[in-house]
Fold each of these.
Amino acid sequence: MSGVSKARKIAYLSVVTALALVLSYLESLFPPFVAVPGVKVGLANIAVVFALYKLGFNQACAVSVLRVFLVSVLFGSAVSLSYSGAGALVSLLGMFFLKRTELFSVPVVSISGAVLHNLAQTAVACIMLDTSVLKYYIPVLLLTGIAAGVVIGLVSAVLIQRVGVQWEQ
């Protein structure tokens, strides 16, 4: 969408950020799908992947940072901010670089983001808890990251295809 006004861009970003926040909240209401602590689908990443493809990297960063910050303030803590922030940053950078190659589909980009998110959070946990025993948790996180990434990627791909908003990147 060339020539999109600044007000319209702010409105789009606000709606996508609000969607990410609502999806985070809704996901927090559901009991865990598996008996593995901390494993979630990451519904809010639908908004981030959508923003990355339709609005651009800077806008996806804004959505991701705002979502992580607001969820931590409203529903979490400083500790959850450090875990979520690290996961979101590493995930978004990985997805950006894969998307930029134009060699990978949306679900593959999403899978990479989910796996990178889990690995970054595990690294932060190892540092904060001063232990390396959590590395044994990585195979489980890789499998759940792949599964979550597929789900988020497929939903995101449909939204990217069907929602008409886009501006120069």
Amino acid sequence: MRDDQVNQCIDYIRFTMEMEGSELADGTSDVLESILTGDADADSVVADYIVRQGLETSYETGHDEMGTYEDSRALVNYFNIHDKARLRTIEHFLVNVRTAQLFACPVSGNPTFQYLCQIHSRLFGDIYPSAGRIRTSEASKRKDFCRVQFIERCSSELFARLSKDDYLRKIDDIGDFANDLAFYMGEAEALHPFRDGNGRAIRFYFNRLVQEAGYLLHWSKADPDRMLEASIAAIDGDYQALVDVLGEILEPCG
């Protein structure tokens, strides 16, 4: 991977952390860079981190794997962590490592809904038994998301439409591309298919789709607050703010 590509990947991960209201911990960017350049193996980095953090590796079954622990707001996880703040710190590191791994070793195939589920599983599979699985409870965060009973049908319709549009691969006009991209990103956010981690999985999915279509998103130029508000508006079908944000950071590859 070229130096400029490594920097773009790090910029993407840094922006993702800003969207999560956090930032890269000291030394993390060096670890991620070593994975992106092939100097370190992601599986070994994860295994070493688990040992250094003294994390439990004997998973306590019997919990609702789509829910939280009874005495906590922490999602049920493989490390039996009930402290949400500690879980969040560990989650961020492991997901960032897996994000770098996905950049370095992309999954092949068309970006279908199954591919989105696979991304979620790869990003969160070290931590949550619910990774890659469709949620079974209603969800809302400033907006109400797709009802559980409609997720399967709506995801099928949305991704069939995206396939019919050839995953946006034949759009030469950058303005038209930003418009279509904003629509699909907004609809995917409204679908909100997973229990948690939707934003990170969906963002990675569309970042890959954009590259496959011959464009590039400069995440270092993006404002996380504007992106958040634009994404929320798009969930309600008002795509213009997201079109504007994406238009400012999009450019054709090459």
Amino acid sequence: MSINVKIKLTRGAVLPAYATDGSAAVDLRAALEGGSVVIEPGKRVAIPTGIAISPETQGVVAIIAARSGLGFKHGIALANGIGVIDSDYRGEISVCLHNKSDIAYTVNDGDRIAQMMFLPVFAANLIPADELDETERGAGGFGSTGTN
């Protein structure tokens, strides 16, 4: 399944691409116009990507996810867990990175800093209710189904 998405490029950005035929997301790169940014330990920095998007339908959302290698090798994660880019947002996409390590990390222009995937969106019809249907799990949460 595919969707057409118009992409506006600024700051010398290049068109995002899928790394392999089986990739679920395109790589997002830092658009620092030839420069670099240092993320000090424990700090957060918003990194511009130089792209803005316009999906062909409002029935999708662009999700910004961390790159596993940055997290595992360098302690660099998304500051907000995941990013949600609504279908009607037309501004430049920035990625807020958090350095969870004790070593400064340098992001250079063109470095792959995150990944973006497109997912369908279901608009919920929210219906007030005094009672909810019963399930086996019920209200159990936070480990209530066990650890194994």
